[in-house]
Known about the structure:
Layout: H1 6-9, E1 27-31, H2 36-47, E2 51-55, H3 64-69, E3 74-75, H4 81-84, E4 90-93, H5 95-98, H6 105-112, E5 117-119, H7 120-127, E6 132-137, H8 142-155, E7 161-168, H9 170-173, E8 179-182, E9 188-192, E10 207-210, H10 224-244, E11 250-254, H11 258-265, E12 273-279, H12 291-296, E13 300-310, E14 313-319, E15 326-330, H13 335-350, H14 355-364, E16 373-378, E17 381-386, H15 391-404, E18 410-415, H16 419-424, H17 426-433, E19 438-442, H18 457-467, E20 473-477, H19 479-489, E21 495-500, H20 505-520
Helix pairs in contact: 2-7, 8-13, 8-14, 10-11, 13-14, 15-17, 17-18, 19-20
Amino acid sequence: xxxxxxxxxxxxxxxxxxxxxxxxxxxxxxxxxxxxxxxxxxxxxxxxxxxxxxxxxxxxxxxxxxxxxxxxxxxxxxxxxxxxxxxxxxxxxxxxxxxxxxxxxxxxxxxxxxxxxxxxxxxxxxxxxxxxxxxxxxxxxxxxxxxxxxxxxxxxxxxxxxxxxxxxxxxxxxxxxxxxxxxxxxxxxxxxxxxxxxxxxxxxxxxxxxxxxxxxxxxxxxxxxxxxxxxxxxxxxxxxxxxxxxxxxxxxxxxxxxxxxxxxxxxxxxxxxxxxxxxxxxxxxxxxxxxxxxxxxxxxxxxxxxxxxxxxxxxxxxxxxxxxxxxxxxxxxxxxxxxxxxxxxxxxxxxxxxxxxxxxxxxxxxxxxxxxxxxxxxxxxxxxxxxxxxxxxxxxxxxxxxxxxxxxxxxxxxxxxxxxxxxxxxxxxxxxxxxxxxxxxxxxxxxxxxxxxxxxxxxxxxxxxxxxxxxxxxxxxxxxxxxxxxxxxxxxxxxxxxxxxxxxxxxxxxxxxxxxxxxxx
Length: 521
């Protein structure tokens, strides 16, 4: 299956441009406003003084209560009348829509009226105009790292604005309820910067955090080389804008990741400063400093080693945060989150946060929504929920659950996110799921897929069963059917890890409801 490319996925959208201020009273209509990113764009635009409304036929979501609280009306249908009668000055839309329906009636009506049609990321960039922009990018860990940085900056009194692709806890949003946006009044503004089809192109950050880089999104990237080239081009484009303002860009790079180290090695002529973060391997070795550091002179290094991996905590010894090594105790599990913590520390240092405040903030972070989120326990079965939808993310999240729940039988319950990703990485998905003690694969969530015939959940489950014929493996069907099947199969002492995009979060919720009801019977 060949990649369609960013131009096809974003057909009909205006190209990315430099950010500009949102005008008070500017009328903005957000198509698909119940999504994680689009809802944040709507909130941030409204806080900037725009008149915002939206539409989404998917109905209420976990992101819409914040819109309701802000007084942003979201119609329950798509309709060209939203454009014809509402006469917005611009439409903001997700590429998940243009990927499958570039001639959507609202988009056609807007173009016919000369109304700009832009990705919602452009609205977020405009809302951040004039602030010190921090972009958190990478194949994995963007939401956790972004949310963690927002927490550290907030605790240190920096009052950041933010867009994060997962629900921030109510304590961080200032709204009294969870949301994917934070207004803030301080200089920093944190954005989760997604590489898919150029989604990060409207952002030109002063500080970039690069967590990881490997092949994903096979509908737009042919291979790993294409992914790395996209990250490199974006880093270079940001530097052009930042240096034109007379400032020095900063790259906080997890050089222990092979893809990130390779990108850094290509940036010998890059005009900024490198903060290289390196989590020691199991042998205690640290990753070498990439070629970029030798071109720039001495780069800042943040090195760490894990001194304890316990159910309720991970303990790090961090060098480079202060004059002497600092012990930091994290509430999060998993080596991947220890690496994310170093990225947060590097960005916070670049923003002038004191080392002791960074250490305190790293240790007090409790996480964001759907990132190793414990949903509850019923009849001795504990249920976790996570957005993992790539083989590497599944591997790391399974390891984190085993850290949290030693001795339990661990279920990997996965709703594959998109047919193209599942088909392209089928063998890798099967191999990593087979490392669990029991597996259930729900129906694939199509998302932006134009072709839903190229693979199936049954095919993926068969690949797992071929590798582990003696463990429970099934493809029960829908989210609801998967929850019902699990309620019959799990036993006291199990840990169930639900993963994926789409509606996978409902599996854990429904499973707990069914187990609780069975216990009450």
